[in-house]
Amino acid sequence: MSKQRSKEPVSGTVHQNGGFGSSFGFVLACVGSAVGMGNIWMFPYRVGQYGGGAFLVPYILFIVLFGLVGLSAEFAIGRRAKTGTLGAYEYCWNRIGKGRLGYILGWIPLLGSLGIAIGYAIIVGWVVRALAGSVTGAILTEDAAAYFSQATGNFGSVPWHVLVIVIAAAILMFGATKGIEKINKVLMPSFFVLFAVLAIRVAFLPGAVEGYKFLFTPDWSDLLKVDTWVMAMGQAFFSLSITGSGMIVYGTYLSKSEDIPKASIRTAFFDTVAAMMAALAIMPAVFAFGIKPNAGPPLMFITLPNVFRQMPMGRLFAGLFFLSVAFAGITSLINMFEAVSESWQTRFRLSRKTAVALCSGIALLVGIFLEAEPNVGSWMDFITIIVVPFGAVLGAVSIYYVLGFGEIAKELKEGRKKPLGSFFGPLSRYVYVPLAVIVFILGIVYGGIG
């Protein structure tokens, strides 16, 4: 098996699932994967907590670094190996005659994607339930904390949980790359438009200026604090969905004519825009009504409904908010399912529908028993603090050291009109890979940094 896999992929071959039809569609799909709950409920709070405008300095620095060499690596190995996680790791390790070991190691980031999907589907189910509550007005007329607690008990959100998984699975079963591209071309622009509408409305609230001060008044002394840099690094790393798995599968479907470093920077740019728009829609509203800002689920499911309750046309704006968050959640979940499904489809020669059904079925069966908030919280902590960062480290080491920069650079140069900068190799091997290791270690020390 390893000997067969060690052959160079034929540059003209097309994956059995097809490919992205355009660079725009590819970037939107990647942005859909990257934009998620971290952009919406963590980023705004972190900006204000760690220096306001000053926090944006290290954050943007890390976004550019991780986007350029981190995302590019995952896209490039996917396109070069012509398959997702399991095959891509085997391809890397075949370089030193250890393809079987690479295949085994590839299961770690792949299970990380499945693990995130299990917990993420539950949380997106909460979002869809909140959307329904916004439409009916229930989330605004009832106590928000009580409404949220109803969904987060044992088996408290089964119908919504099932609905989310069925939607994601249906898109993947009946479209593969075309389905991914089409849905992201609709949902991601809709996400940006909806948040822009919310941000404009919020700007006219009395007292909104305090939210802008919280977000953007720089405290430059925070740049001298280690925690500011640690949190900016963690936020940037995880915001871009660098997991050693998910972005590899999207690279698999990328045409040889596409410029990978350029697409990576575009993805990082739009992911940052999404985070900033979420901040501009959320924090001014929170401060306008004198509600204490906080991070995590309470911000989205308790604090914001209390804000919308006090706003004119609150039901409409609550609906717009939860609809946009649902779009972000579904597009991220699609990527997680696709990473797992493609590997199983290719490795075990399963039909497309069988692979997707197996992946989504496992996610639902395991997730149903984790629906209580303490359970899903503990599950996500383990996956996001241990499994996913370790998978990202495996990916970075496998691509830039085991396969080697010289080999992956051949793929990075494909489709480029300009030469790859001479800085790219040292930056990837001696800065990015060590930082990926540091992110993993600090995540354990801090109990999570992204």
Identify the notable features of this structure and list them briefly.
19 helices; 450 residues; disordered N terminus; mainly alpha
Characterise this structure.
The protein is mainly α. 77% of the residues lie in helices and 0% in strands. Helix 4 packs across helix 18 (373-413) and helix 10 (176-203) packs parallel to helix 14 (260-288). The relative contact order is 0.20.
Topology (elements, then pairings):
Blueprint: H1 2-5, H2 23-34, H3 37-49, H4 56-81, H5 85-94, H6 99-136, H7 138-141, H8 144-151, H9 158-173, H10 176-203, H11 209-216, H12 226-239, H13 246-252, H14 260-288, H15 297-310, H16 314-347, H17 352-368, H18 373-413, H19 424-446
Number of strands: 0
| SS element count, helices | 19
Instruction: Report the average pLDDT across residues.
Output: 92
Unreliable segments (pLDDT under 50, ≥5 consecutive)? 1-12
What is the overall shape?
globular
Q: What class would the helix/strand composition place it in?
A: mainly alpha
- What proportion of the residues is helical, as a percent range? over 70%
- Strand fraction equals under 5%
Radius of gyration: 21 Å
One letter per element, helices H and strands E, the order comes to HHHHHHHHHHHHHHHHHHH
